Amino acid sequence: MYIVFLSYTRPMQEVEAVLEPHVAWINRYFAEGVFISAGRKDPRTGGMIMVKDIDRARLDAILAEDPFQAVASYDVTKVNITRSAEEFAGLTGI
Q1: Does the pTM of the predicted model rise above 0.85?
Q2: Of 61, 48, 69, which is closest to residue 2 (Cα–Cα)?
Q3: What are the YCII-related domain coordinates in residue numbering (predicted)?
Q4: pLDDT at 89 over 80
Q5: Cα–Cα distance between 55 and 67 in angstroms, integer?
């Protein structure tokens, strides 16, 4: 799986201006079964998306569609989950 950290590079006013299409983009990939989890950083300096283990080129293409490309930078890390707490056992091997 991948963990994608987004960090805002533009003022919050610009982030808010593209928030609605960004949420629609997130919803699309949840519906397609690609995204596992997503949320805001606290303090609100960006966000995080957990993504199923897909081809990296496909992930890059998906991220390129995100309206937040105009207001954020992305840090993508591939993680091989080998152990999880019982509540998160479904993540093992994703």
Answers
A1: yes
A2: 48
A3: 1-78
A4: no
A5: 21
Write out the two tokens for 51: 């993504």
Q: In this structure, what CATH number is given to the domain that contains residue 79?
A: 3.30.70.1060
Q: How far apart are CA 11 and CA 82, in angstroms?
A: 38
Number of folded domains that form the chain: 1
Residue 72, classified by CB atoms within 10 Å of its CB into exposed (0-12), middle (13-18) or buried (19+), is buried
Residue with tokens 């606290």: 42
pLDDT confidence of residue 76: 98
Query: In which domain, by residue range, is 14 found?
Result: 2-91
Percentage of residues of the chain with pLDDT beyond 70: 97
Task: Scan for tokens 């982030």, then name that residue.
Answer: 15
